[in-house]
Structure formats: C-alpha cells, structure tokens
Amino acid sequence: MLRSLIAAFCLLCLPVSAAEEQVVLGLSQDRVAITATFDGSELLIFGAIKRETPIPPGPPVEVIVAVAGPSEPVTVRRKERKLGIWVNTDSVLVDLAPSFYAVATSGPLDDILTDTEDLRYRVSIERAIRSVGAAMHIRGAQDFADAVVRIREDENLYSIREATVAVDEQTLFRTSIDMPADLTEGDYTARIFLTRSGEVVSQYETTIDVRKVGLERFLYNMSRQQPVWYGLMSLVIAIAAGWGASTAFRLLRDK
Amino acid sequence: MYIYLPIAEVSVNAFLLLGLGGMVGVLSGMFGVGGGFLMTPLLFFIGIPPAVAVATEANQIVASSFSGVLAHFRRKTVDLKMGTVLLVGGLIGAALGVVVFNYLKSLGQVDLLVMLCYVVFLGVIGSLMFVESLRALRKAKRGGAAPAKRRQRGWIHALPFKMRFRTSGLYISVIPPVLVGLCVGVLSAIMGVGGGFIMVPAMIYLLGMPTKVVVGTSLFQIIFVTAFTTMLHATTNYTVDVVLAVLLLVGGVIGAQIGTVIGARMPAEQLRVLLAALVLVVCGKLALDLLLQPAELYSLGNGGGH
Hints:
The structure holds two protein chains of two kinds. Chain A has helices spanning about 1-15, 110, 115-120, 125-130, 140-155, 215-225, 225-255; strands at about 20-25, 30-35, 40-50, 60-70, 70-80, 85-100, 100-105, 160, 165-170, 170-180, 185-195, 200-210. The model of chain A is unreliable at about 5-20 (pLDDT under 50). By secondary structure, chain A is α+β, with helices and mostly antiparallel strands. In chain A, the strands form three sheets. Chain A has a six-stranded mixed beta sheet. A four-stranded antiparallel beta sheet of chain A has the order 1-3-10-9, with no helix packed on it. Chain B is mainly alpha-helical. Chain B has one domain (about 1-140, about 155-290). Chains A and B meet through strand 5, strand 6, helix 5, helix 6 and helix 7 of A and strand 1, helix 3, helix 5, helix 8 and helix 9 of B.
C-alpha cells in the first residue's frame, strides 16, 4: 500500500517523463550487404520526435545518434626497442571494443550530455570500450585503451561527428553516417538519444544487419566450416587459373 | 575498382593487385625466379595482414609452378626420385614451420618472425648475388673464361644411407637432400615462398646435381610442399584468401610471359645486378621498419588468443 503510494507520487513528480517524447525512426537501409565490390556505405538516419504534449519549455531538445558494430575482445600490443629492433612486448586484453563506432550529435557532446549520463548509456567512444580486466601490473594500462581508439580513428572505424545531426523545429532530425569498406560483419546497433540539459529523456534502439553476401559469404563460411575442402578448392582454382592463363598465352603467341 | 577480400577482410583495388602480380610476374619471367620472396613483402606494404599474405602466397606459388613443372616433365628434366627425397624433408619442414608460425602467432610475434626471416634471407642472398654478378660483369668486360667448376667431394660422400639417383647420375646419402628439403619446407611455411632461391644453389653446389635437372626437380618439390603448406594454413589459421590468390596469379602469369621476352633481350649479367639491387631495396625497406621507431607503437590483434 505504502509502496504503491510512493510509486504514484514519484510518477506525479517526474517533470518530463521519458514517455512524453518518443523517437520515430527511419533508416535508409536496415541491412548492409558486403559484396565483392563493396567499398563502403552511407547510412542515412532520419526521424521525428513524437509528442502528446506541447514542446516543453527550456533548452531545446538535442539528438545523439550512435552506431556500433559488434563488440569483441581485442589484444593490444605495445612495441619496445629490444636489441636495436622494435618488437612487441607488453600486451593488454581490452574486454570489449566495438569493431565500428560512430557518434553523430546535434551539438558539442560535452554540452548536450552530462558525464553521468554518458557513463550510464556508454555513448562517447571512450565509454563504449570496456577494459575492466585490464592488467594492472602493466604501467599505463589506459594507454592501451587509448591506442585502440586512436588506431581505429585513423582507420575511420571510430568517429565522433559533432553538430552533424540537423534538428528542425525540435521535431525532425536527420544525419548520415559513413561506413568504411573494411567492415566486419555482424549485428550493428543504432541508438538514438534525445537529451535536454544534458539528461537523456528518451532513447531508441534498432539493429542494422551487416553481412557478407553471395560469393563473399560462401567463401568465408566454407573457409571456416570446411577448411579442408576450402584448401583443396583454393589449390584447384589457383592451378586451373594459372594453367589456363599460361596455355591461353601460349596459344596466342603460337598463332 | 575496389574488391573486398573475403578472408583478409580488407578492401583493395583489384587493378593494384593485378598490377602487383604482373610486375612480380615480369620480374620472375626476366630472372627465372619464383617471385614469392618479392610478392609477400609487397603484400605487407599494401596492408594485407602478414598471416594472410604468407598463406595466400603459398597457394599462388603452387599454381604458378604448375605450368612450369609440366614443361619440365615434357623435356624429361625432372629427377623424380631426388624430388621425392627432397619432398619428404620438405613436408616435415613445412609441418614444423607451421607449428612455429602458430606458436609465435599466439605470442603476437609472428610479424616479427616473418620480417626478420625476410631481412636476413633477402640481405644475404641480395649481397651474394650483387657481389657475384658484379664480378661476372667485370670478367665479361675483360673477356676471360670462367674457371671450370669442380664437383665437391668430401663429408657429403662419407654419410650413410646411400641411394642411387639415375636421372641426376648421383650415388649419395639421402641425409643431405632430406635436410635441404627440410630447410626449404620451414621457409615455405614461415615466409610464404617456394624456396627455389635457396634450393637451386644447394642442389648445384651441395648435392652436385647436373644443372639441367635442377630447376624441374626443385619445381616438383615446391609444388607439393607449398600445396601442403597451403592446406596447413587453411585448416589451422583460416588465412588462405582464394580471391587474392587468383587476382595475383592472373596478373603474374601475364607478367611472366612479358618478362620472358624482355629477359631474352637483355644481357644476363646486367639482369642479375638489377635483380640483386631490387632484392636489397626490399630488404632495406623491411629492415628500416624494424630499426626505426614506428609512428604507432601499439597494434591490435584479435582477442581470441588468451
């Protein structure tokens, strides 16, 4: 009795409940097919904010879009100079790091999302990587996590694009996210956050299916599931191609 | 036109691969070498993961040696018995090589191992070739005849387990050919090369085989050893990329035909100086990568190895 009263009281007190503003989302594609000639893809994300009530007063609504690839553990190795040459010495296992991570925002991330909310929803790149089990005996374990971000930023796999989400009339928003050619396959998640004064007021999540298709799919699966047959097939194909090309050339020359 | 390689999981320009294959093919046609020792480092330079480069190159060598060995079979310049003895050593060596390769891969040191092998072998072979061909050039200018080579007789003939090799006209112990095959097998597994550049001199100078059967016999051994290496890499590392292999191969076969024509028109000594210089350049580039402080000290690997 008392508990339900408290619950009802809390509901009444909440100034803007999460349900008042909702995301209605559209995606240019909900699956990305990696074909033989795949050279990257542009993902168009657009949507509207649905409200039953008038736009709340105060600072305008801000939108954050985060697209993440499948998370996997990553071994990070550091080179050191030994006997005059640079060799890998220390290594740290970063528990989970997304293979791809792009954040697009409607304003500077620090202004539109507080640290506590970032920690809770793991929005910024640094928070999206988890290295709880990082070996403490290695000096500067944080450097290793930073290296993951730096290397993947250089490869255009991680990016943060501030002020690239256009918001119209606090209702419509749109952005596009470039996905590079070197994608790993898996279930990608697109998360959309609506924030006011740095607090998340609503979030929405959907999945984008990134898959190798056709020949790529066939070869990849075969190499993992029937490695013996795949190896034999590679040999036969290569021998046939090499022998065919040289025979064709000899015939051409002899003519 | 970019093409996504299914196993390497990188997107590379298909014409770049055809071009690379063609370029190395021209060189291998000009100089009569397999070209694996040039192709594998070039694949590192364009960003193919070393493990994939080594395994795929082994696959490509099988194919590019195949038409060569057929031609030698027609001319009856293959010593099958010697080839088989070399092959026994080669298969053991390849198995050892893949074990070492996979062990170092789990330690994260495989790139270092491959690079070091390349620097050492390219450095030694390049310098030897360079010195030797400069000497030959000088001699050719003076017009003096090369001194006749003497067959080596010594410790090799004192070893047990002798066997008669009719095609080569030899009666020697099987231990040296098995050891030669073994070394080449290890190199094939670790470096993704056929190993002809080691085996041919060893067969001529160490085993004393007649020059006319050397190339055919070494090709015979190389095909089976690299095929075995390909299978080992395909089943333990899943690193053979057949799309990459075929692209390199098509470029390579066409390049080799052009190279043979160019090679026939250029004087042999100058060709060898060129090849030696090329080998040394590739070696130098790899050595610099090891010696200079890299721009990025950290590297990422998959986390499965714990």
